[in-house]
Design brief:
CATH topology of the largest domain: Cathepsin D, subunit A, domain 1
Low-confidence stretches: 1-55, 79-87
Number of strands: 34
Radius of gyration: 22 Å
CATH class of the largest domain: Mainly Beta
Number of domains: 2
Strand order of the largest sheet: 7-8-15-9-14-13
Bound molecules: 2-acetamido-2-deoxy-beta-D-glucopyranose
Shape: globular
Structural class: mainly beta
CATH superfamily of the largest domain: Acid Proteases
CATH architecture of the largest domain: Beta Barrel
Largest sheet: 6 strands, mixed, barrel
Strand content: 35-45%
Mean pLDDT: 82
Number of helices: 8
Amino acid sequence: MGNLSKNGTTFSCVYIPSKVLIFMCVSGHTNGESIVKVFHRHGPCFRDKTVTLAPSLTEVIAHDQSRVDSIHARLTRKLNTNKLKQHEANVPVKSGRTLNSGNYVVTVGLGTPARTLTLVLDTGSDLTWTQCQPCIRSCYKQQEPIFNPSASSSYSNISCNSAQCSQLASATGNKPGCLSDSTCLYLIQYGDQSFTIGYLSKDKLTISADLVVPNFLFGCGQDNQGLFGSTAGLIGLGRDALSLVSQTAPQFGKYFSYCLPSVSSSTGYLSLGKSAASNNVHFTPFAGSQGTSFYFIDIIAITVGGRQLSINQSVFKTAGTIIDSGTVITRLPPGAYSVMSSVFKQQMAKYPSAPSYSILDTCFDLSSITTVTIPKVAFTFGGNVVVDLAPSGILIAVNSSTVCLAFAANNDPTDVGIFGNTQQKTLEVVYDVAGGNLGFGPAGCR
Ligand SMILES: *[C@@H]1O[C@H](CO)[C@@H](O)[C@H](O)[C@H]1NC(C)=O
Ligand SMILES: *[C@@H]1O[C@H](CO)[C@@H](O)[C@H](O)[C@H]1NC(C)=O
Ligand SMILES: *[C@@H]1O[C@H](CO)[C@@H](O)[C@H](O)[C@H]1NC(C)=O
């Protein structure tokens, strides 16, 4: 039992074993249970300024689907061709929703003097890039001033003949280009509409006041298009040699962790280096990376409301699963999603159902309901690591009256599953890349 007071209104809550309780419109913690915001136009907290509907969720989801399609395409391509000193640095992570992105962002400094840039945190890609003046072809509108290499005394272009230029092929999936003055060109495509093209460059990266990476290799984008919101670009945390993780391996030993906040008013973190990992973190071994830079993990089981779903193990084994900070909604093999959806519906039977919203097809109409109790959802990963999802990782509010189960099915059983950022919210997620383990801990941030 617990009480929560907000704007003079007190909401009481009842704790039901194996269930999590959700208050309409309120976010916070009570008795160790996190409470997610669910929007309700007629609810008691509608006037709360923190309650704003997510802008363009339809676009966020459409973009998400393009990203998932491109991940599937990359993997299919790859598979067909078969193919320390321990410091610690902490960077705050914020929800990118205010920047019109379904992703999470960190703010870093680039160049001398350092210019502030807000970049999307992406474990599903490798090369870090930012839009660069003079934007020869095109730059989209970003919140901060666009990085100007000629105003940085530590900037330089990388030449086509260098080893770093050749590394682009694996980091981006595209062969590097070469200008007549021997400047190395990169191209990255993320999905149908998103791409960046520019110079492979190096400059000083300031991760935090006392943490500087001199000669950091990144893409200086001269033609940038797609759905990056108003962020300045992207920070690549994949396994490839050009990723931030690999470039900082001498300092940080390929060890990083993050927490993605559940509400845009909250702040999570990105931490490089082996921190005093909390005791609550449990490690699952990475599964084989199939020759890619993705982080594969094994899903063993899914539990809904304390009940283990009856899903044949081979359903998860067929294509495997990656964890990705850049995919918003978790994608499951169709044979797993259908079981999850039907069990979730059974356990939510007392709430009226609502029509599908884009790829989300397990939806509920809460327009006449003030509090809702939802079943807990837990994932079991290899090594019997059980991860309880936060309420914000189970349901997503799609408009003022409707919430949907925040999972979707892949079209094809042979498409890789993706454990996305909605489901990672509030968890401490630890990547021990060198040690081959991925850790999950509860309540890393709120
Ligand atoms: C980098 O290469 C571009 C394209 O050739 C050129 O315009 C620019 O001046 C170069 N920058 C530096 C600092 O060499
Ligand atoms: C699981 O699926 C595999 C492959 O389709 C099948 O051979 C096996 O019998 C199934 N196991 C169970 C317990 O249904
Ligand atoms: C909310 O979304 C659902 C599902 O797409 C739709 O049926 C409903 O009409 C929407 N309601 C409002 C108020 O926009």
